[in-house]
Amino acid sequence: MQKINFLDLELQQNKIKSILDTNLKKVLNHSNYIMGPEVKQLEKALEVYTGAKYCITCASGTDALILSLLAYGIGKGHFVICPSFTFPATAEAILITGATPIFIDVGKKTFNLCYRQLEKTLENNKNKLDIKAVIAVDLFGLPANYNKLKAISKKYNIKIIADAAQSFGASVNEKKVGNLASLTCTSFFPAKPLGCYGDGGAIFTNNKILKDKLVSLRAHGKSTSKYKISKIGLNSRLDTIQAAILLAKMKIFDWELVQRDRNAKLFNFELEKLYKVPKLPKGTSSAWAQYTIIVEKRNKLMNYLKGKKIPFMVYYPVPMHRQPAYKAYADKNIELKRSKELSRTVISLPVHAYLKETEKEYILYHLKRAKNIL
Ligand SMILES: *Cc1c(COP(=O)(O)O)cnc(C)c1O
């Protein structure tokens, strides 16, 4: 057995090599490295792909979150709710704007935020804290329930921001991520479902006012001209070179989604009697950024897999309310039992589009065997 990769960006590159070369050569020829024609072209292509009216690319998924919060006017004195079980950037973006995060728990089946606790937190607040927004995270590629969130947002007059860094390409009842929330942020970090060869991100919206604000905010808050500054913004544009790479990757993106979905469903079918496997709500597809199972005796499984040279990752070993930099913001009255428990029990397995049949068989064979020692 050759070495199994957790991700395989090399085989992916082979598949798009010629179009990649052509696209990169074009950029080197016109030398328009900042906001070159490929950036506009990519934004158009992503608007068509998602069905969202506007796509605003930016320098990273983290910046997409910061820009979104700024576009909503969120900052000092404001509070933003987010799940504790997520990637640190979700909480970091809130804190960087000067606002304060309120961590809530997640559901055990979806890994997405717990709507019951969200409502309870908003109900108990009774306007004590100035809660402006909720950042819902589509963890591991599964979109949150934006219908439920829309109803909550109306009832309590708060904004919903989708952290779709891991779910680009997924959909709910045929509607694509990017068109499910009023503001959707995604990341093009190389390991995300649609990744470039560096940092990159994008924001999607159907709202023209928000779009205009975001276009200004990502370029230092410029207004009618480059040197007329109307807002305090960021330097957060997507490089032309990264846009050219993403345009090449989009050619195989849907094919990759199908392969990952097939792999995840095969793993679910073979493992569901032995492990807690991820389940999709009806009508919802996942981008399968990660295939994550829950195992009580995780250490034992990790040692076994190491011995068999099967790669794995733990996303995430520490919930946000226990991070040294964020723990001061943990609210003792909000129970975060499941976030704690998941940090101790989750393990992600390779699910990428380039897994060979023999590799899948090998992984499944050993996961079944490992069950005897767990
Ligand atoms: C990766 C990720 C981010 C940040 O994206 P970057 O492009 O790395 O800045 C934010 N939120 C979640 C849930 C992520 O997985």
Overview of this protein structure:
The protein starts with 8 loop residues before the first helix and ends with a helix. The relative contact order is 0.17. The longest helix is centred in the last third of the chain and has 32 residues, at 240-271. The mean pLDDT is 97. Helix 3 runs parallel beside helix 4 (89-96). By secondary structure, it is of the alpha/beta class. The protein has helices at 9-30, 37-50, 61-71, 89-96, 115-125, 146-156, 208-217, 240-271, 298-307, 337-345, 357-370, and strands at 54-58, 79-83, 100-104, 131-137, 159-163, 171-172, 175-176, 183-187, 201-205, 291-294, 346-349. The chain has 11 helices and 11 strands. Bound molecules: pyridoxal-5'-phosphate (PLP). Residues 60-62, 86-87, 89-90, 137, 163, 165-166, 187, 189, 199, 201 line the site of pyridoxal-5'-phosphate.
Helix/strand layout:
Blueprint: H1 9-30, H2 37-50, E1 54-58, H3 61-71, E2 79-83, H4 89-96, E3 100-104, H5 115-125, E4 131-137, H6 146-156, E5 159-163, E6 171-172, E7 175-176, E8 183-187, E9 201-205, H7 208-217, H8 240-271, E10 291-294, H9 298-307, H10 337-345, E11 346-349, H11 357-370
Parallel strand pairs: 2-3, 2-4, 4-5, 5-8
Antiparallel strand pairs: 1-9, 6-7, 8-9, 10-11
Helix pairs in contact: 1-8, 2-8, 3-4, 3-7, 5-6, 8-11
The chain binds pyridoxal-5'-phosphate.
